[in-house]
Design goal:
Blueprint (H helix, E strand, L loop, with lengths): L2 H7 L3 H6 L1 H9 L2 H20 L8 H16 L12 E3 L10 H11 L7 E2 L4 E2 L4 H11 L3 E5 L2 H13 L3 E5 L5 E2 L3 E2 H8 L2 E5 L7 H7 L4 E7 L15 H11 L3 E6 L17 H6 L4 E5 L10 E5 L1 H8 L3 H5 L3 H13 L3 H7 L1 H7 L2 H16 L16 E3 L5
Helix pairs in contact: 4-5, 6-15, 7-15, 8-9, 16-17
Length: about 400
């Protein structure tokens, strides 16, 4: 059959809709989706004909492809996956999985109304940040806290609040870039702060900070090297020493610790990641960290520290553009509540459990999976459990 004849015999959208197949799809699926699937399939067949192929063009022949297109278009684009990469906090796969307690709290809060901005005891309008304040203070030892939608936003609002048009001193070795081309210098530029680099890539001394101080200095910024490590001939200035310098000149010290570990992971053989409590105790005036990395909660940027500084951040108009919703509050509160009992947090928060799990426990689970797989595959296939190393991911624990 010639191309022109094939094209002439290709059914129209209306013809297909009126066919028994089209009527069946309309009874089951949304009309817009059915129409789109029909158009896509007919267009694809037309292209095949014009490319000198010889496809079937009857209504019956089109129906299989149309059904596949309908199912594809009707399915949610965001899908649950099995993470078999060996990377616990996989940034492309959604970072941390929530605990059952967090999921249940999100479901309960999202399904109806809540006291998001309402004080039940006083019967009047309340503040949304009050729900997390107490548990954050209890766990971290900070004076106050506020939460925004991610750690980049947390750093940005700190810079905007305290250093717009003024200088921020940061070590050259801490001008980090994380996923998505997020760079500390770019964030500073966006905030209106002026970057003042000190030291070198591998060595920065306290005197470098001291020599950079001037009347326009508004902040000392300490950035944790969470996704890379410089080794060898190196030196950096401690939080304690920077805190003393900041207090002497009445300049706030802000520490971006990134991944936000609450538990001391060294007892589980994981080194190099300070807890947010350690950074607060060391003298940082403000500490920012992520909610969906080592913490094991939802995406959020958590800011803890001195009460007077937190109150200034809360008065920044930019905060409204960065605020989190009720579902994030619900997940974050439930996650932090679990940290009141470290043993339960390690057991019940998926990210923490996976990071602290022993090699023997992992091997035992792998052997269990192996036994199940051997029942489902050909006897000719060889399946083995072999030792390997997993990674934390999420720009933490390089």
């Amino acid at each position: 059959m010639k191309n022109k004849e094939k094209l002439a015999n290709l059914p129209s959208v209306d013809e297909y809709l009126k066919s028994p197949y089209g009527q069946k799809w309309l009874e089951i699926y949304n009309r817009k989706i059915v129409l789109r699937a029909i158009r896509e399939t007919i267009d694809a067949r037309r292209k095949e004909i014009l490319d000198s192929n010889d496809p079937e063009v009857s209504i019956e022949a089109l129906s299989g492809d149309i059904e596949s297109a309908i199912r594809r278009l009707s399915a949610y684009k965001l899908k649950p996956l099995i993470n078999a990469t060996g990377i616990v906090i996989h940034t492309n796969l959604g970072r941390s999985a929530l605990s059952d307690r967090a999921i249940n709290n999100v479901t309960a809060i999202a399904a109806g109304y809540s006291n998001l901005e309402y004080e039940i005891a006083k019967g009047k309008r309340g503040k949304r940040y009050s729900h997390l304040k107490d548990v954050l203070i209890e766990i971290t030892g900070a004076e106050d806290a506020v939460v925004v939608n991610n750690n980049a936003a947390a750093v940005l609002i700190c810079l905007d609040t305290f250093a717009r048009g003024k200088e921020v001193i940061v070590s050259r070795g801490e001008l980090v870039e994380i996923g998505g081309s997020f760079r500390i210098p770019d964030v500073m530029e966006s905030s209106g702060a002026i970057l003042r680099e000190v030291g070198t890539t591998n060595k920065t001394h306290l005197m470098d900070y001291e020599n950079a101080l001037c009347g326009n200095t508004a902040m000392l910024l300490k950035v944790h090297q969470s996704n890379y490590k410089i080794i060898g001939f190196t030196e950096e200035v401690s939080i304690e020493d920077l805190s003393k310098l900041g207090r002497e000149f009445k300049i706030p010290l802000v520490a971006d610790v990134g991944s936000g570990s609450i538990i001391n992971l060294e007892k589980y053989g994981i080194h190099g990641e300070p807890t947010v409590m350690d950074v607060i105790k060391a003298g940082a005036d403000l500490v920012t960290f992520s909610g969906d990395k080592l913490l094991g909660g939802p995406q959020a940027g958590i800011i803890i520290g001195k009460k007077d500084l937190i109150q200034k951040i809360q008065k920044n108009p930019m905060l409204r553009a960065m605020r989190i919703d009720k579902m994030t509050f619900a997940a974050l509160e439930a996650t932090f509540m679990q940290y009141l009992d470290e043993e339960k947090a390690v057991r019940d928060i998926p990210t923490v459990r996976m990071l602290t799990e022993s090699g023997e426990a992992i091997k035992k689970r792998a052997n269990k999976i192996l036994s199940a797989l051997k029942k489902s595959v050909s006897e000719q296939a060889r399946l083995d459990v072999i030792p390997d190393q997993s990674r934390a991911g999420g720009g933490s624990l390089p």
